[in-house]
Amino acid sequence: MHFTLTSLVALALAPVATLAALSCDEASRFGRLTVTPTTLKPGDAFTVHVDLTCAAQLGYLPTYMDYYVEVLSNNNGHEAPILLARRTYKPSGSKQAPSDTFSTKLPEWYYFTGAQYSVVFVNSFAQPGPKNNSVIMTGGISAAINVTGISS
Q1: Secretion signal: which residues (predicted)?
Q2: Residue ranges of the chain whose pLDDT lies below 50
Q3: Is 7 helix (H, G, I), strand (E, B) or coil?
Q4: Coil, strand or helix: which one is 139?
Q5: How confident is the model at residue 28, as a pLDDT?
Q6: How far is CA 35 from the centre of its chain?
Q7: How is the chain split into domains, by residue range?
Q8: How does 110-136 read in b/e, with b if 16+ C-beta sit within 10 Å?
Q9: How far is CA 7 from the centre of its chain?
């Protein structure tokens, strides 16, 4: 058998990439979302952060990123998603973990007492098709928030 140096390096690095991907649970394949603080009233400022390390390791690095406030369960039919931000992913080029962070305010809107609100991150990522034509696919994750100060 004849191995080249490139083949040996690839063989040596394959377990490292596999181990890194194995440390990512299924739920974090599109990112890990945090919202701070989680108790908000309309008009309050908050910070949204999504860690994209696992998304990058598993091949789901976003092209586009959308953030919404949504009622994911027991929606009464009048609680449409509220767009917080639409962003294009721009890799930093540094050795820092891929991520996206921004601050915004909870929109002044009609919120319902008893509804369970979440900030939802939608990761739109390109995947090669059978003839190498890219197709944009989506996956999402959410983080619960508590909306207070509702006048209903």
Answers
A1: 1-20
A2: 1-3, 5-9, 13-19
A3: helix
A4: strand
A5: 93
A6: 12
A7: 24-147
A8: ebbeebebbbbbbbbbeeeeeeeeeee
A9: 35
Residue 69 near residue 118 (C-beta atoms within 8 A): yes
What's the CA gap between 78 and 100, in Å, rounded? 30
Residues in the chain: 152
**Dihedral pair phi/psi, residue 13, rounded to 5°:** -85, -20
The DSSP code sequence of 36-88 is ESSEE-TT-EEEEEEE-HHHHHHT---SEEEEEEEE-SS--S----EEEEEEE
pLDDT for position 1: 46
Cα–Cα nearest to 110, from 80, 142, 86: 80
- Verify cis geometry, omega within 30 degrees of 0, for the bond prior to 62: no
With tokens 């995947």, the residue in question is 127
CATH of 24-147, one of 3.40.50.300, 3.40.630.30, 2.130.10.120, 2.60.40.10: 2.60.40.10
Residue 76: C-alpha distances to residues 19, 31, 144, 148 (Å): 43, 28, 18, 18
